[in-house]
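Batch 3, record 17
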Amino acid sequence: MRELKIKMAGITKIFSTDEMDTHALRGIDLEIYSGDFVSICGPSGCGKSTLLSILGLLDMPSNGQYLIEDKDVSRLSLTEAAEIRNAKIGFIFQSFNLIDELSVFDNVALPLRYAQQAPKQDEIEKRVMQCLEKVDMAHRAKHKPNQLSGGQQQRVAIARALIANPAILLVDEPTGNLDSKNGDAVMAMLMQLNKEGTTLCMVTHDPRYAEMANRKLHLLDGQITDKAGILAEAS
Amino acid sequence: MFSYFIRTAANSLKHVPGYVLTIVLTFGLTLGALVCMFNLNYLLLYKPLPYPDQQQLYVTNWTHHDDGRLRFNNAQNYPGLMELYQQTDQFEQRAFIKYSEAVLTNDDAKPKLKANFITPDYFSMLGTQYVLGRGFSAEEGLHSKVPVAVISYQLWQDLYKGKPDILSEKMMFNGTSFNIVGVTARNFVEPQLHETGRNTQVWLPWDFNPLPPGDDTAWGMFFIEIYLVAKLNEGQSVSQTEHNLSTLINKRFREEVTGVPYFDSRKIAVSLRSFENVIMGDSRSRALLMFAGVLVLVLIAAVNIINLILARAANNHRKIVIQIALGAKRQHIFGVIFAEILMLMLAASTLAIVIAHLGNTLLISVAQTQLPRVAELSLNLPTVLFSWTIGIVLAAIFSLITTSQLNYRELNKTLQASGKGAGLQISSRIRNLLIISQVTLCGVLISCNLQVFSSAVKAIQAPLGFTTESKTFLDFDLGELVMAPAEERRNYIEAIARQLEQHNAIEKVSLASNAPMARTVNIEWTTAVTSELGGGISIGPGIGTIDENYMPLVGLSFIAGRNVTAEEVTARDKVAVINETMAQMLSPDSSALGKPFYFNNQSVPYHVVGIVKDLTIPNQLNMPRIYVPMLRGATYLVSYKPNQQLSAAQLNQLAAQVSSQIYLYDMYSMNDVHQLKISMDKISAWVTAILGLLSLFLAAVGVYGVLSYSMTLRKFELGIRLAIGATPKRIMTLVCKDTMVPVLIGLTCSTALLLALLSYVKNKPWFTVSVELSSFIIPVGLICTIAIATAILAVWGVASKPAIHSLRSN
Ligand SMILES: Nc1ncnc2c1ncn2[C@@H]1O[C@H](COP(=O)(O)OP(=O)(O)OP(=O)(O)O)[C@@H](O)[C@H]1O
Ligand SMILES: [Mg+2]
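Prediction for the assembled complex:
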């Protein structure tokens, strides 16, 4: 029996500005099991990034219930959210998001340093090098991000996302800033990780890549449209 | 071309009123203070005194040495000055001045006026102009005994309400009626040779200087309020003249004081001090110091402004890039930036001139007794030029710094990237440099200010050894009664005392020659005493004659022995109470109680019957004092009952009941004298407190400006850190740590600067401030606290919101 990693029920998100309220999410119900590769697609502005940021505890839902590994995370303080992000969630963004001043090694090591019980230095070294080897970037550990190509930077970002053994890897347009060759390579790498057991949830515009997922969600105007299909697969 | 730049700049500044206002106000205010200090320093350092051939004007000054040891400075005698006055071949012109006071008895209010006794050359030497009448003529000179008076413009306005027929008025002083013959011009500036801020109200001929008989021929009595001022012949050697005059005075002095053992080893050096030196005193270094303090403040403000200007350039980056794409050259870009900054700086400079003008007005109204020549302050061309030059030079520097941040190759790249990627960023090196310089300047300024502040506060709070509360010194003039026989005079003096005692506002009365604290720096009067007849230890103590009520009234406590008794006062017994310092000098090894001491020219000694504690007068060394029992004149120390006080008119009424001849000559409360003595310390305390707080405030605003700009640049990076699990606390710690690096470097720089400064001034004679460790530590604590507080404030926008806020805006 596959483990239930994530469960969302009736999640909504409303952005209130002076002029108007934007209902970015209108009642999302979603379950993700360990080993899933979920892709989310839909037209621009339908709420994909918003959903991903709530999944990743970067933002709080306006309403609804959200559980990660059975722990209710719908209402958390900023500090609690940070701790759970650190322990359970890995992020890969469209624009690589490496910190320019830090070397590749230090970028990858950062989540471990932020952990509540940070491992010892030699343990950190071992794990960082392991992860860098996984994405084939070990030989560039001492470089700064701006000395790497876009595809290489994204691979470093993947290594960083993996380092803390997260419960789920959240990926937003991982190939958006890459040419097709590099994009394919990154996707291949993600597929490989999924095969090895990593749970993935990915937002993408590219239908080719969306097809690679074992579960495809369509988002329209803040709602999941083909709910039935998901429920069918889940059971 | 330039007008195009100006128009463009004016246009774009219209859209950022907040930016314009911040810069113009911050800089206008601080620069205003600097311009004001420049104006003051220009006056004190460069502007010649307003007298014809002012560099040829000198004041004589006698320095007294015994066996080569300095006794005192600046005290001269009448016969000696008269000798000098006769040396017409040494001077082109010369005049006597005695700074004095006189009661105008033909006025109902009997006001006491600042009166100077002079000889006619005084006015011509100074090139004096008159609104009415004239100065003294040669016929009204020495020994002519013509009773004429010249009054000041201010007195004419204040006392005579500017009445046009003032020249027909008479003034009555000391029983003589003087014809007013002139009123000095409104802009006449008298040389304040005796006391800064003392404005003479009436000038009278030297012949009418009221002196106790014999004083004018006594070679052994020295006075500090009499001067000979002289105009040297052009090209005449000062040192040669000094030598001639010294030789003359020493020769005459020797002839006159032979047989007085006290003067056996006395040498008198006559020196000529230029008007400039005497009038300025040490005010120049004080004015320069204030200039330096404000300069640092302006530098702090300048660093703030660089930061604002750079942040604005960063915001305008795309506009600049497009201009370059359209073919703008380096000098065009510089032109636009320079035009904009120049407009701001010129506006600030102009505001600064207005502020400086207000500052002048303030100085004129509050600092006349603290600084010389302040009344002459006015805005002048050099000051206005100074302000604008600073504005233009800084505009050029700021523009260069800004354009140096534009990397032209990167600019093209930015354009090719069609707007993607980061805009111009102020490099982190520049940002750190800004913080380092803010902290360095602020640290130095606060430390120095704190140093002066704490020593000023100490002087203000220093205990005096007696309570000044409700104690007042009264001096009555007996008029014609001075001539009465001693016994009769004594009766009048005691009758006044009884009148005072019986008044129900008064608690206690003592007949005493001096107040415990005199208004002048030099206390009361002094003469030499010796521990043995004609030899032994020689001491120059302050002397007061007292009655039995004096010690209890002042509240001086006895260390040993007893007070004088009423009988001793009546009998003028040769006993004395002395203070601790005197006791220590008279008898260093054993108790001075019972020891004798001899007055000059007296063979019967006084014996010490009591020793009292020292009084501590602010900013004055403890000096030896002798109190002897004796009634001398109509001077009284009274203590009022709580919340009671008598006016001059009430006191005159009391005196009139004794005799119509008697009137109040002088009155001052110990509280007022105390306030007067610490007035400079109070001003220092205020100025340093304001300067310190201002610099702290400006530095805080500046550091916050840099940090909040850093936060805009770092927002995304911090967002990533949050996304991968950094807690808000960690983010704050990170930013605080990053901020503390330049702050600590700045503090190290400021400490190094301060130590260098200290080692430079340590051995300078004018450096009298006692250095305290706390003045180093407190600024460090303050600046660190403020840096951390501003860092937290700056990072709050990032750390207090969900991570998505920081990630999204990029
Ligand atoms: N901070 C915000 N304030 C107000 N409205 C917002 C905010 N963030 C997102 N929205 C709105 O919420 C809706 C969903 O935005 P979201 O970024 O999730 O779309 P998306 O599906 O990721 O689009 P794209 O494919 O273009 O990235 C949009 O209508 C957007 O305008
Ligand atoms: Mg999106």
